[in-house]
């Protein structure tokens, strides 16, 4: 009996060895015909030939009919929904156009088409720098690795148009041979280094959030070259980042009405997420926004990045079983609605503060008189923008978001009280507020000629963008012969 068992064990071991050797031979055979992807291959469709199921789910972000309470790829004009923002961003490009962010598939299209990037006629024109491309495409790390990071930042946005053509995708987050997650943006690596951290030591779970933190963060354009930089040196709270900016005397723009030096928050998603209970419990961005799913009988990571509420059974339901989907939706929307309520109150307060400051300046107020109020408006608007710009903040960190907005309300109200005293001192008893009930009325009030901007943009889209695409196709035709 023992001999029979030993023979069976031997046969099983031999079988395992034979299977292993067979697999190795097959892989070696295939490797002779299938070469590794180029390290900086920017074309998502090329990656899709190797990982078709993941690529297919990524392509689902193209669906512009997908629009619900829980976000989607349909274009939504946020200034039309909330004209207050036109006044808050007076003097800054966001007052021209601001649409709800769409899926990664549209990253390049949306930055090309927005009025914020202007209508440059050549490589030296336009209001924006190359920095505006940094988070939009896997072509960015390709260009930076080919030409150098510093050279990238010396260029205007328009000068890189023919180079940055592929939307956010595979190469941004994955190493091509092993498919391990990787950091491709120098900005996050440098932010870690300045804090004395080594990002290469990050765990697999940490990477499932850090690849998102390459872009979904607060950042600013540093120095004459407008180098993208994360202001985390003192910490990641709204107060820490504000202190960093104040000590570096940084301002994004001077407000066209109140003359306030404004800090424009970008999208501090990661910063707010790190204050959440989910982050504390070890949940990652990918757990909720890229959950596991089944496709053609195989388990994959869903690359249709979207609101977790659209796939509750694969997101919330994994950890919080035993509840109906509508309970999760109600839970989230309840927080969102409450945050929205106090956010709007802060917006209305700030709009009045900017207009009242404008009237005070026109009445002859001096810089010495206005400085204390202006500093408070800066602080108040920074808190509004920090809370408003982060996608999902009202769910990621509702308590911290509410705290930030509440502090902004306090500071804004204090600024208005100071301005009211200045107005009285200069004989102004009543301020007449303009009708800004629509986006068009608000934009007209701050002096924007939107019809001209739109006409110029249409010329740009019909003449310059086709030339960019033509040059890009000519360049990419060479990749297969040069890189593989």
Overall description:
With 484 residues, the chain is mainly α. The chain has a domain at 44-322 and 445-471: Orthogonal Bundle (Flavocytochrome C3, Chain A, domain 2). Helices cover 53% and strands 4% of the residues. The chain is built from 23 helices and six strands. The protein has helices at 2-31, 44-50, 52-59, 78-81, 84-88, 107-113, 139-147, 149-153, 170-173, 186-194, 204-213, 238-247, 269-273, 277-280, 285-289, 316-319, 325-362, 367-389, 393-396, 398-425, 439-445, 450-476, 479-483, and strands at 220-222, 227-229, 253-254, 261-262, 292-295, 298-301. It has a two-stranded antiparallel sheet with strand order 1-2. A two-stranded antiparallel sheet has the order 3-4. Strands 5-6 form a two-stranded antiparallel ribbon. Strand 5 (292-295) and strand 6 form a beta hairpin. The longest helix has 38 residues, at 325-362. The protein is globular. The relative contact order is 0.11.
